[in-house]
Design a protein that fits this description.
alpha+beta; Arc Repressor Mutant, subunit A; Endonuclease, Chain A; 10 helices
Length: about 260
């Protein structure tokens, strides 16, 4: 059923989808044989096959036997066609768009979509990544963060739960033992290149329904980045005031780095 629905979205009728799927199972066959096996009325089968030939989805031999285009070739053709269509659409959008000094903030829902967007932002980062998240989200995004660090993009990572300190600018948020309970869920905030922000509270057990903000609004980007940056000062204050301990050499260097990171 899912395959049929997906094929219909690329412009095939229900009969055309059925004919193609049955041809994949058995070919070459003539129209009469395909009508019997697929249940497509004999009065319609040749119109269906003619349409599929015109669309390049089936081929007919001299003996009146039909074979389907191999699925991998159909996928390649669709991919090339849609890439070309998207390039044209992108150009049309560019021509139609007006200059704007205001960027809207959009609301995203759906955990997989949010994680995919966060990963996409990190992969596209060219200057810096600021991120604050819990371990559940770290499992999805840590590989992308590692790749960013490897290509020379600084990753400033505030972990909301204890995790391996794999990044030079990574800290663990003070009070992590109770912060999730206080928040009522798992917060996640991501700012990339001072240009794009993604953030929200993922409610435990209702992650797919939790609203997450995304946008390029300058005020939201700046304020979220400033909030993340000040989490580092919270960490330094906690170490020196609450725990009454001196900063290590690495922590002192990180403090100096964050101080200059305005």
């Amino acid at each position: 059923m899912t395959i049929k629905l997906n094929l219909q979205t690329i412009g095939l009728s229900d009969y055309e989808v059925t004919a193609y799927l049955f041809l994949l199972q058995k070919h070459p066959v003539n129209g009469s044989q395909l009508s019997k096996s697929s249940g497509i009325p004999r009065a319609r089968i040749y119109d269906v096959l003619r349409s599929l030939k015109e669309k390049g989805v089936v081929a007919e031999s001299d003996e009146g036997l039909y074979v389907p285009l191999p699925p991998e070739e159909l996928l390649n053709r669709l991919r090339l066609r849609h890439e070309s269509e998207l390039e044209v659409l992108q150009e049309r959008f560019r021509e139609a768009s007006q200059e704007s000094n205001y960027d809207y903030v959009w609301i995203m829902r759906g955990y997989e979509e949010v994680m995919a967007k966060a990963g996409e932002m990190i992969e596209a980062a060219g200057q810096e990544v600021y991120i604050r998240m819990f371990s559940a989200e770290s499992r999805f995004l840590r590989p992308a963060l590692t790749r960013a660090e490897q290509r020379g993009v600084p990753v400033k990572y505030i972990a909301m739960q204890p995790e391996p300190l794999d990044f030079p600018s990574q800290i663990i948020h003070p009070g992590h033992e109770t912060i999730g309970e206080i928040l009522g869920g798992r917060s996640m905030d991501l700012v990339v290149d001072r240009q794009e922000v993604l953030g929200g509270l993922l409610e435990e057990g209702a992650e797919d329904l939790s609203p997450v903000n995304w946008g390029k609004n300058n005020w939201l980007v700046t304020s979220t980045r400033d909030s993340l940056r000040h989490d580092y000062f919270h960490y330094f204050l906690y170490q020196t005031y609450e725990l009454q301990r001196s900063l290590s050499t690495e922590e002192t260097a990180l403090y100096d780095y964050i101080m200059r990171d305005v």
